[in-house]
Amino acid sequence: MLTPSSALDQVASLISAATRAGADAADAIYVCNASTQVQVRLGALEDVERSEGEEIGLRLFVGRRSASVSSSDLSADALAALVDRAIAMAREAPEDKWSGLAPADRLLSGPLAEVEADDGADPVPADLRARALAAEDAARAVAGVTNSEGASASASRSVFSLGTSYGFAGGYSTSGYGSSASVIAGEGLGMQRDYGYHSSRHLSGLEDPAAIGRRAGDRAVARLNPGKLASGQMPVVFDPRVGSSLLGHLTGAITGPAISRRTSFLLERLGQPVFAPGITIRDDPHRLRGLRSKPFDGEGLPTAPTDIIADGVLTGWLLDSASARQLGLAPTGHAVRGVGGPPGAGTSNLYMMPGALPPEELIADIRLGLFVTELIGQGVNGVTGDYSRGASGFVIRDGAIAEPVAEITIAGNLKDMFLALTPANDLEFRRASDVPTIRIEGMMVAGA
C-alpha cells in the first residue's frame, strides 16, 4: 500500500504521461484497500480473511471526447500501455459538450481539512477474534436465542489520492473497524433472525462487542410469534436503522444527473417546501471521524457542510461538474467516483436533525399504528415518488409498542410522506446516513 504522498507521485506521473501523449486534460485516481476480517460461529473460529488491492484510474480528454481506463498493475510498462489505450479510446469516443474536468478556479487550494479519518491502529487477528467471540457469546446468552449465524470483527485501511492536470493534488488515508452478530431465536417454522452491528473510523469509537451481541439477541427474540395487522391507513414509525433509507430516496432525487435527465419526482421543487417546517437535513463531510468524511470531492473541489433541506425547504441540487454545466449551474463539491468511469454526485455524512420529542412521546397518541424495524424489496419509483415496500416490525397500540407483526406492505408517495414526517429527538451518529426515529402520518398498510 502506497502512502498518500507516494500515491500522489504515481498519479502525477500518469497525468504527465497522458498530456505528453496528446491528452488536452486528464485526472487520475489511486485507491488502495487492505482489510482483515475474522468470522466465528458457535464459539469456534470459522474464517480469517485478509485482502489487499490497489488500483489506479486515468480519465483523459481529447477535445470533447473522453475515455476512462484503470489498472491494478502499477508497473511502468502497464501504465504506459494504459495511457496509449486511453488515448486510442478517446479518439473514437463520441463528443460530449458537457464533459471535462472541474473548473480550475474552483479546485481546492491550501491545506486539507482535518477529519481524523485514520487512527493508525492495526489490531492483530487475535484481537479481532476476541471481539467477534464476545459479540456472539453475548447474543447467544439472551434467553430464547437458539442458534447463531455467526459474528465477525474487521479492521481496514484505505488510501485515496487524486490529481488533475489543472494543478490539483490531494490524498488522505482512512481506517475502519466493524463488529457484528447475527442470531436466530425460536424453533422450526417459528424461527426469527436479527442482527446487531457497529462501524467506526477509530478503534476507540467501536461499540463494546457484548452490547452489539445483546442487541442482536434481544431483537431476534422480540420478533418471535409475529401476527398480522389489519389493513388500513395509519401512522407508520420507522426505527432509525431503516428510516435512514428515506434519505437515500431524497438524495437520489436531487442529484445532478437525475435533474438533468428530468427523471426526479422533485424536479420542480427547488426552493420550495419538501418537508414540514423545522426539518433540517445536513450533509457534513467534515465531521471528525465520520464514516464518509473527506476534505475534497471526487473532482478535487473543496467540501463543506451543507443543509440540503433547511426549515423544510429544498435548498439545491447535488452537482458534479458535468451535470452542473448541463444545468447552467456551479458544481457543489458533491462529486463521487471510483477508479473507472466519470464522476457522479452523492453525499458524505448525511443526517436529519433531531426533533423535540422522545420516541415514547412521539407515539403516545397513536391508537393503532406500525413500528417498522425491517424493510424488504425496492418498490420505489424515483420518477413519480410512488413508494411500496414489504415490512415487518411491531404494532403500536394505545401509544405503546405491542406484539410483533410480519408480511406487511406499506405504501404512499414520497412527496406526501416527506411533508407528513416528524422526527424524534434520539439521533445518533452510527452510519453514513443517520436519522432519529421517524413518524409519518397516513400511510397505507396492507396486512391481513
Automatic annotation (TrEMBL):
It comes from the Bacteria. GO terms for cellular component: cytosol. Residues 231-447 form the Metalloprotease TldD/E C-terminal domain. Transmembrane segments: none annotated. GO terms for molecular function: metallopeptidase activity. Residues 27-90 form the Metalloprotease TldD/E N-terminal domain. One of its GO terms (biological process) is proteolysis. InterPro entries: Metalloprtase-TldD/E_C, Metalloprtase-TldD/E_cen_dom, Metalloprtase-TldD/E_N, PmbA, TldD/PmbA_N, TldD/PmbA_sf. Residues 121-224 form the Metalloprotease TldD/E central domain. Belongs to the peptidase U62 family. This is TldD/PmbA family protein.
